[in-house]
Amino acid sequence: MDMTVVGLRVLREVAERGTFTAAAQALGYTQSAVSRQVAGLEQATGVRLFDRYPGGVRLTDAGRALLPHAVTALDALDAADRELSGAEDNTGHVRLGFIPAAGAVLVARALATLSRQSPRVQVTTREGTTPSLLRALRTGLLDLALVTSRPPHRSPDADDPPLHTEPLLEDRLVLAVPAGGRFADRAAVTAQHIAGETWIASPAGTDGPLLGIWPGLPGRPRVHHATRDWLTKLHLVAAGVGITTVPSMLLSAIPPGVRLVTIDDLPEERRRVSLVRPPGSTTPSTDALVHALRQHAADLAE
């Protein structure tokens, strides 16, 4: 089989990103160039590597079989490049991915603790949705990921071998409202109270739900502001331009001008934050980061 390094890199990126467009943006290619690379790789292997569907692509069984070999080959080439350039192999490096809600408190506190307890461990981080982080784990681009799930908390993905999943924190959604607004004197509201409110939400994506709007809210909510950043959402609430949902784990990061209330007549919304990693053995550096994350997850749960 005549497979190119560029083709293998495109395979890994498309598998992680879930669309040719996102892979092209990450690699700095055009979408047509990515399509040509995938077509060339499929021609070289004699099998279809991706199933196309509205909104993205998924690896076929053949693609899933090829991917770990591609990741191994690319990692070996990267190691050879570092060795030839005289760079030292950083065995204390851990790559952590996390959902946006985990960054401001859980990840930040864990990294601060890690820097004191294990200063030689270097961590690089990336934020993403749960589906994108799971793909990054499968493609070998992450060592650990903090992801979220709703009851009944099924296995994070259906691929084999199964990912190692450790529940870290049980959380719940609350409603963030302006401290000086019409809900200033309420500890709880009803669905009717908030039916006509303006919402602040995350932009809708192809691999995740719209965040910031209470699930199951009757009617069609009015979304006037869209941002993925939790801090921006909360400051927009403080400015009085709308309301949003927020995980209760962010309580310590709530800025002035924001109050948290519950909704009395809608089901409670629970979330679980889990630590996920590929199957197999871990490194001392990974174990040190996991220990710090467990420590601060336990603190948030109290």
Give a written overview of the molecule:
The chain is α/β, with parallel strands linked by helices. The protein is built from eight helices and twelve strands. The strands form three sheets. Strands 3, 4, 5, 6, 7, 10, 11 and 12 form an eight-stranded mixed beta sheet that branches. A two-stranded antiparallel ribbon has the order 1-2. Strands 8-9 form a two-stranded parallel ribbon. Helix 1 packs across helix 4 (61-84), helix 2 packs across helix 3 and helix 5 (100-117) packs across helix 8.
Helix content: 25-40%
Q: Pairing-aware structural class of the strands and helices?
A: alpha/beta
String of helices and strands: HHHEEHEHEHEEEEEHEEEH
How many helical stretches? Answer: 8
Q: How far apart, in Å, are the first and last alpha carbons? A: 56 Å
- What percentage of amino acids are in beta strands? 15-25%
Sum up the overall morphology in one term: globular
* Total beta-strand segments: 12
Mean pLDDT: 87
Low-confidence blocks of residues: none
Largest sheet: 8 strands, mixed
Return Rg in Å. Answer: 22 Å
Quaternary class: single chain
